[in-house]
Specification:
It contains 19 helices and 22 strands. It has a six-stranded antiparallel beta sheet, with no helix packed on it. A six-stranded mixed beta sheet has the order 14-16-17-22-21-19. Strand 2 (56-60) and strand 3 (63-67) form a beta hairpin. The protein is an alpha+beta fold. The N and C termini lie close together (4 Å).
């Protein structure tokens, strides 16, 4: 009778894992395509241009000599770097000169006649910011044999790095060569971006059912990282000198630490949350300041990139610290074996990524802020693969949990039937009817009929997954109440406002709520009380209310009922992920008040050793299991309101099944 959600469909058909595997195969195919680019095609392209790496005259500060590119240059903020070289005598049509600029103003001249400026109106996002991008200057055919001069002007902190190759030849051939030459790094960034999209989309689906946003935030983190690494691959996808790739790369890198901390805050709701929230706020403020500061002051962007780079590493180290605490610290006691296993996987891939970061920092120390080498990309890809593995395992565990939940559902139906007809209930009912036979045979006949119908309903509920009409559930409730009236007499008063009965409910799902109201709400009061059962509907839900004016529910009892013990957490007999998600929903939808009307702060569900157990050692689970069964079979929302010595109101909202929908 439950409307199938997307996750239910995926879980039952195991499509989720297959889809993820298909995506991984696509990513592998992309990487393979870039790995095995045709060497013949590459050689053919190279014949259409040349690298002007030799014979450059350089003037840079005190340096003035003939050098070959690449060359390391170290100049101050007021010094220029000038490269000069004679162009070939013959210049074919569609010839261009291409070089990569690292945050420096650039002027390209032929015989002192400027032919290209960078930045210019086409590629300038700000009057003070100089992006890092490829530059292309068209060379006319009549410029053959003349002197080519490239003049660089560093930003206000100077330049300390390498000047790379300068290419001369057919413009399209150079662009195609640069794409193929940087294809592997681009593909490795793209694979991380795709992994992020997959994680984000699947995580967004998961959160609707498990209230777990962490996978969606992990996907967002990888997606932003993928944008950074893809744009940092020096792939001229959007043309030459546009500046778009640099600015998107710079903003993405600035945001990565915040995304990592958002992921931490969503995954670990415990004693670390206050520290994590503070770091998140600091990171957000930092992102705003660094972007505004860079766009308005023109401060050296490579230095700002360095700050973002190390903030990202710091955020990742903080994540590893949290994971370590939840694997080996005290927090381990409140986590199950699955979570610890997946945490170990995440810790391992995070450690590998940090090791790659350290290696690249040492190996590329002179170019760390202008280049992201293959070493770091390997680290990030392993990290992304680890998260994809965790996603697949969560999908597998989700299917397994659903199977366990269905097994629990059948078991709970049997327990429900046997629990409803416990020996003391049978004894009390039969003894009361036996006494009544002598006093009022007709009434005894009616009560025995009610008792027989109640027993029959319990037996029929076993294996019933289709549900019954609400009118049938009301009949079961009336049969049960008629029997209990033999025990409570005038202390038990029932009311029904149930004209609307045109909907389905799980068999014996509302009756336990009435029973709970009698036993724990009305019975403790010497004067008894009143219970009202109501039914109505709105545009979205069929709604049932069970209201009593009994003693109410204390916060202590609520926490005992809606918690997960360590035995339940460690055992295989409980779908811990779904159950904990359900408990969170109950806490969110429960309002408990003191006798004076003051609302009680319930906090979060207790799990593991923190779960509260009654003094007698018997954990009350009947009410919890009834609510869980309603949730599992109907996607019901259950609201609970209670006030000490004023009563309790339980509202069950069952999503309406419209004509034509599968039920």
């Amino acid at each position: 009778m439950k409307k199938k959600g997307l996750l239910s469909y995926l879980g039952e058909n195991d499509v989720l894992s297959v889809a993820v595997i298909v995506v991984l195969i696509i990513i592998t195919a992309l990487l393979s395509m870039f790995f095995f680019t045709s060497a013949d095609s590459n050689m053919e392209i190279k014949e259409r241009f040349e690298a002007l790496d030799q014979g450059w005259e350089i003037e840079a500060g005190a340096l003035k000599e003939t050098v070959d590119l690449p060359v390391k240059v170290d100049v101050g903020p007021d010094e220029q770097i000038i490269l000069r070289r004679k162009l070939p005598d013959a210049i074919p049509a569609y010839t261009a000169i291409v070089s990569r600029n690292y945050h420096m103003k650039m002027v390209v001249s032929v015989d002192n006649y400027p032919i290209y400026y960078f930045p210019n109106s086409y590629n300038s996002f700000s009057d003070v910011v100089i992006p890092d991008d490829w530059n292309m200057a068209e060379i006319a055919e009549d410029m053959g044999g003349r002197t080519l001069e490239i003049r660089f002007t560093p930003d206000n902190l100077g330049f300390k790095g390498y000047l790379r190759s300068v290419y001369l030849g057919e413009d399209n051939a150079i662009i195609q060569y640069l794409k193929e030459d940087n294809a592997l790094q681009f593909a490795m960034g793209l694979s991380i971006l795709i992994a992020g999209v997959v994680l984000f989309l699947v995580g967004t689906i998961y959160r609707r059912y498990y209230r777990d946003y962490s996978q969606a935030f992990a996907g967002l983190m990888l997606l932003i990282t993928g944008i950074w690494l893809t744009n940092r691959a020096k792939m001229p996808v959007l043309g030459m000198g546009s500046g778009i790739t640099f600015f998107s790369c710079f903003v993405a890198l600035s945001v990565v630490p915040t995304a990592i901390l958002l992921y931490c805050g969503e995954k670990y709701h415990d004693k670390f949350i206050h520290v994590t929230r503070a770091l998140q706020r600091f990171s957000i403020v930092f992102v705003i300041i660094i972007i505004v500061f860079s766009l308005t002051t023109g401060y050296s962007l490579d230095r700002l990139v360095a700050v973002s780079y190390f903030m990202m590493a710091g955020a990742m180290l903080y994540t590893m610290y949290l994971i370590w605490c939840h694997i080996y610290g005290k927090e381990r006691e409140n986590r199950n074996r699955r979570e610890i296993f997946l945490d170990k996987i995440e810790f391992g891939v995070s450690l590998f990524m940090i090791i790659m970061f350290v290696i690249e920092t040492i190996y590329m120390r002179d170019e760390l802020w202008t280049e992201v080498n293959i070493i770091n990309r390997i680290g990030f890809n392993v990290y992304a693969a680890g998260h994809i593995f965790i996603l697949i395992m969560n999908g597998y565990y989700g299917v397994k949990d659903r199977q366990v939940a269905m097994s629990q559902l059948k078991e709970s139906q049997i327990k429900l039937m046997t629990g409803q007809i416990q020996p003391h209930f049978l004894f009390n009912a039969l003894s009361s009817i036996r006494t009544l036979i002598k006093e009022d045979p007709d009434k005894a006949y009616d009560k025995m009929y009610d008792f027989a119908k109640y027993l029959r309903a319990n037996v029929d509920s076993i294996g019933n997954t289709e549900g019954i009409g609400f009118n049938e559930e009301i009949d079961i409730i009336k049969n049960y109440v008629n029997i209990e009236e033999l025990r409570y007499g005038n202390r038990l008063r029932m009311g029904y406002d149930t004209e609307y009965v045109e909907f389905m409910v799980p068999a014996l799902s509302i009756q336990p709520l009435v029973e709970n109201a009698i036993k724990h709400g009305i019975a403790p009061r010497p004067e008894g009380g009143t219970i009202l059962v109501k039914s109505y509907f709105d545009d979205e839900y069929d709604i049932v209310e069970v209201v009593d004016n009994g003693v109410g529910i204390s916060a202590e009892r609520f926490k005992q009922v809606f918690s997960i013990t360590k035995d339940e957490l460690e055992g295989e007999d409980i779908s811990s992920v779904e159950t904990y998600s359900f408990l969170e929903r109950m806490y969110d939808h429960a309002v408990l008040r003191e006798e004076n009307g003051l609302q009680i702060d319930l906090g979060k569900p207790k799990v593991g050793k923190d779960a509260e157990i009654p003094v007698n050692g018997h954990k009350p689970t009947g009410f919890r299991n009834t609510c869980l069964r309603l949730r599992e079979m109907t996607d019901a929302i259950i609201d609970l309101e209670s006030q000490i010595n004023h009563g309790t109101r339980v509202v069950v909202k069952i999503p309406r099944v419209l004509d034509g929908e599968e039920s």
